[in-house]
Write a structure and sequence with these properties.
heterodimer, A: alpha+beta, five-stranded antiparallel β-sheet, B: alpha/beta, six-stranded mixed β-sheet, about 40% helix, binds adenosine-5'-diphosphate, binds magnesium ion
């Protein structure tokens, strides 16, 4: 059978047709956008941090009764305590390297500021996050230097948290270098960090994520500045890399060793992430993207439910129609329709309904994306998502219609005479 | 044209076995007009559905056009139904979702006929039954007699060589029954073989030959017109309470 008579017959079942068309359209619109969002979340989750994450863990600890002043004496005292801790950690048999650092990628503890090309520039040229550490930061984190040089020991100074004696040199990420100096000649140039000290770029690292995984940092996600300064405060963070396969052991030993060298400190071991002081980097990564993963899973579940409901709707409606039309199927069979003709009848019917549904749905999908772009600063969805969605729903429709259509094709021609 | 020998048809349900036909023998020659009569439940419809390849049978032999149909596959049977056989049912059996034109077109589409030829045949067939002006009407908008004429047009359009009619006038009043009968006779004159089940002895007499089905067996009443005419009265009397 070909289209016109099928269409004519469908006119007699308008309500059902409209319902299922609308359902297909809505499903397509929502699924396209949901899959697009899932894709974006996965893209975020899969961004490389730029550091070597293997066997890495982080200790965040604070001292009890440590000096609190901004005076040089207090700061020097804190600095000595910090360096002693680093030495203690390095001496552990399972530890390969240990450094003090203010934060790490994905840790969601960000110190950021504007970078300018001139002193007292009104609006900054780029936003960037700051990593304060020593000449050991690059090798210990496995960062890749692509131009210039690393810091030397003598480049490194130390200051209190509220201090202002910034060193005159920095290392920046390639992304930031290119943003500031699009011609690619960043090395040796002077930039103004936080409208403050002029700093010369002495080196460029390939990649290092900013600490915040959140969307507010989306526009400057790769813009990091490495500053050769040990920050001294009542608390300190240590990034420790264990020897291969010794991560768990090192994570157990490290707090014990720190307590042994100086018991006047707090290292928490709580049940949830926030109450815990020692985290493997894998944990940090999981924690950082839990909202993205949750959202992706939620969207995925919604898609699955929608697709199932739509498929069930098609199965239900077609089954109902097959039941309703047994007699006319029998008549068609009596008049010479083969089983295949009947099967094709219902498949074609479904294709027509789904065809209208996906056209409507494609328009809705793009509309929904445009609306979300306006409302939630969403990105523009590639039409590829719509195309794949259209094909997926057509296939879903054909799959869903198959069982009832096959049942229809098995209606005996004798039904034309027997049932009334 | 249609030859059944020792044919049987058993309907099995979990509790009972019903012999709808047993040792059923009939031979319908090409171009014959045969009336089939018999009490309700005697197996007339069963005979017709088997003859029309709507249903399979349990035992015996059935030759249609000299071909043993028991070994034919479903597609081959569909093709024969589509090309050789026309059906007219008591309850008209038009497709309610389709208008008159589309209803008549159904078997032609399954034949894969070109649109131009289909339109021509639909027009001719509907003209023959006097309903060319009702092409766009739906079955529900027609009287019973008109619906039956559409059904006949649908059978006609495919120019079948064998027309099977199961009580085609059963749901019609006398006048409509008569016009349907006239149509069948006209089709018969055109060369088609017709087998018609009827309860109406009046109509049966207009056929060349009557076959009685009693308890699943065929009893030939008259082969020759003379014998036919004689037995008609007795037959009518016997048939009195049967329908
Ligand atoms: N599908 C079926 N299942 C069981 N028994 C059937 C079926 N169809 C017909 N029969 C039985 O077969 C016998 C013949 O029926 P049928 O051919 O319809 O008789 P008629 O058309 O002469 O009234 C009846 O006893 C009927 O009950
Ligand atoms: Mg009957």
């Amino acid at each position: 059978m070909t289209l016109p008579p099928i269409l004519a017959a469908l006119k007699k079942h308008k309500a059902g047709v409209m319902l299922i068309t609308l359902q297909i359209a809505l499903t397509l619109a929502i699924v396209c956008n949901a899959v697009f969002i899932i894709g974006q979340r996965i893209d975020r989750i899969e961004r490389p941090s730029g550091i070597n994450e293997n066997n890495l863990f982080l200790i965040t600890q604070s001292w009890v009764g440590a000096p609190t002043g901004d005076d040089a004496g207090s700061v020097d005292k804190l600095d000595a305590m910090q360096q002693e801790d680093v030495a203690t950690l390095r001496n552990l048999p399972d530890v390969e390297s240990a450094i003090s650092i203010n934060t790490l990628p994905l840790l969601n503890s960000t110190w950021s500021g504007g970078i300018g090309l001139k002193p007292d520039q009104q609006s900054s040229t780029a936003q960037a996050a700051f990593y304060f550490g020593t000449d050991e930061m690059i090798p210990a984190l496995g960062l890749k230097l692509v131009a210039g040089r690393n810091f030397t020991r003598s480049d490194v100074n130390h200051m209190g948290f509220r201090g202002h004696n910034r060193p005159p040199i920095v290392i920046v990420t390639k992304a930031l270098a290119d943003k500031l100096f699009p011609k690619g000649d960043a090395l040796g140039k002077t930039i103004y960090v936080d409208r403050d000290t002029p700093s010369t770029i002495v080196g460029i690292v390939e990649r290092m994520q900013v600490p915040s995984p959140d969307s507010w940092a989306n526009d400057w996600f790769w813009n990091s500045v490495l500053i050769p300064t040990r920050l001294d405060a009542g608390f300190a963070r240590y990034a420790v890399r264990s020897k291969p396969g010794r991560l768990d052991a090192a994570m157990r030993e490290a707090p014990k060793a720190l307590f042994a060298s100086n018991p006047m400190r707090v290292i928490e071991t709580g049940d949830n992430f926030e109450d815990t002081s020692v985290h493997s980097f894998a944990d940090i990564r999981t924690h950082a993207y839990r909202a993205d993963r949750g959202m992706a899973i939620l969207m995925g579940v919604i898609c699955l439910i929608l697709l199932c409901v739509t498929a069930a709707g098609i199965v239900g409606l077609t089954s109902f129609w097959v039941g309703q039309r047994r007699k006319q199927i029998g008549i068609r069979r009596a008049l010479g329709a083969t089983r295949n003709d009947i099967l094709r009848y219902f498949q074609t019917e479904n294709l027509m309904i789904a065809g209208v549904g996906v056209v409507l749905g494609a328009i809705l999908a793009v509309g929904l994306n445009l609306w979300m772009m306006k409302q939630f600063a969403m990105d523009r969805m590639s039409l590829l998502y719509v195309l794949v969605g259209v094909i997926a729903l057509l296939v879903l429709g054909q799959g869903a219609v198959f069982a009832p259509a096959r049942r229809a094709s098995r209606v005996s021609p004798v039904e034309a005479t027997r049932s009334v | 044209m249609l030859k059944m020998t020792h044919l049987s048809k058993v309907y099995r349900t979990e509790v009972v076995e019903t012999y709808a036909l047993r040792d059923f023998n009939i031979d319908v020659k090409e171009g014959e007009f045969v009336a089939v009569m018999g009490p309700s439940g005697s197996g007339k419809t069963t005979f017709l559905t088997i003859a029309g390849l709507l249903e399979s049978f349990t035992g015996g032999e059935y030759l249609l056009d000299g071909v043993d149909v028991s070994n034919l596959g479903d597609n081959a049977r569909s093709k024969i139904r589509n090309e050789k056989i026309g059906f007219v049912f008591q309850s008209f059996n038009l497709i309610p979702d389709l208008n008159v034109h589309d209803n008549v077109e159904v078997p032609l589409r399954y034949r894969g006929m070109k649109s131009a030829e289909r339109q021509q045949r639909i027009k001719d067939a509907l003209e023959r039954v006097g309903l060319a002006s009702r092409m766009k009407h739906y079955p529900a908008e027609l009287s019973g007699g008109q619906q039956q004429r559409v059904a006949i047009a649908r059978a006609l359009a495919g120019s079948p060589r064998l027309l099977l009619a199961d009580e085609p006038t059963g749901n019609l009043d006398t006048q409509m029954a008569r016009s349907v009968m006239e149509l069948l006779e006209e089709i018969h004159r055109g060369g088609a073989t017709i087998v018609m089940v009827t309860h109406d002895p009046e109509l049966a007499t207009r056929a060349q030959r009557s076959v009685h089905v009693i308890d699943g067996q065929a009893v030939d009443i008259a082969e020759e017109p003379r014998f036919h005419a004689q037995s008609r009265r007795a037959e009518a009397a016997a048939e009195g309470g049967a329908h």
